[in-house]
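Annex B. Sample input.
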Amino acid sequence: MLMKIYVFLAQSTWLLGIAFMVGLAVWGMRQRDKHHKEAKRKWDDAVAKKMNEPASLHPEIDPTLCGGCGACVAACPEGEIIKLINHRAVLIEPTACVGHGACQVACPYDAIQLVFGTKTRGMELPRIDPNFQTNVPGLYIAGELGGMGLIRNAVKQGKLAASHAAKNLGGGGGAQFDVLIVGCGPAGLAASLACAEAKVKYLCIEQAKFGGTIYNFPKQKVVMSHPLDFPLAGQIKFNKHKVSKEELLSLWTHLKRQSNLSMVEDCRFINLQKRGDVFHVETSKGIMTAKKVILGMGVRGTPRKLNLPNEEMTKVTYNLLDPDQYQQKWIAVVGGGNAGVEAAQYLCKPGLRNKVFLLVRGPTFDRCNEENQNIIKDYERKGMVKICYNTTVEQIEKDHLMIKMDGKVLRLQNDFLFVFAGAILPFAFLKSLGIMIDTKYGEAVKASS
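Annex B, continued. Sample output.
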């Protein structure tokens, strides 16, 4: 009798185990199907909003090679912008992709390559070789101007460009500098350190303040940053994944002082000419000559304007450094992208007591990531900001704006107007320097030497 009880219990336990495993499998399949459906919904939404075309460098996933393991999904540091749909990886939020390349590294099937542009949407880029030298011998481009964003990309490119320039100085007798670097951002800093390491005579000039684009970020803006590998300093790791603008600039200032780098602020690059083996560089502080020139000035130095009368008024600005300077004001922010939406977020915080209006040209946000959209929409529900879709500024006056919203012209009280309409890419200027511009249609990134 006792034996029968043991057998019954054993069988019951075995059956319960089978039932549990089956139930777990069913639950897992349902969760997977749920995630796939959510990913498909996001992709369809991106297509409907015409936000399915990546703006810059991005992964291209070959569905015939993808094994559906999800390694790329887990590796992406920008959140859930890659998802599995029908067991294949899909870039469901292309406009949020900034070209980290972590997905490509993580893929065990070699199904991902990083590309510029798409088959239908070309991307204009200056022609550069694997050492970041343009078709003009001795003239280099590093960082965002070359089509690849991210601080770590700019650091790597600045380092490689300067190292190659320092090893190939050639002639150019009588030049003031071996290497002249334009821009004191991440590319310029890395290039300066590489030149200092190579013990060549160099100078880095910056039209504004040390830090370049990073300096112009709003106060306490979080910069997503991985370890950075600088010449002289080696690899620098951070104790946390999210590093603020101030923390990053503090580190860079330390590197600058530690290596006694040759840098000049408030020195604007105007033009250059190559005469023989020497570049004659026109700046706001006079003509400078160099054997090699590295352009690491980014693409945000010339903001796109509204081209309206009175736009030169001091109330109109194109960046936001310190939100705390604006309190109890009527503020309008133009721009439906990440920069405009983030500025509105900073300016509408309760402690500032501002009246903030976010003016979006179209019926929805333009190339703004989902996280920023969710935050600003939540702020609107709380009454902290007013989002005005289908809205443009028609007239700028001292204490108000005339805006057109859904075809109706309205008067909006206004103390400050922030314009985030993107930047004018300096391709015409680069062409005037002799640099060739190519249009890429889904062309893979070439490995750097």
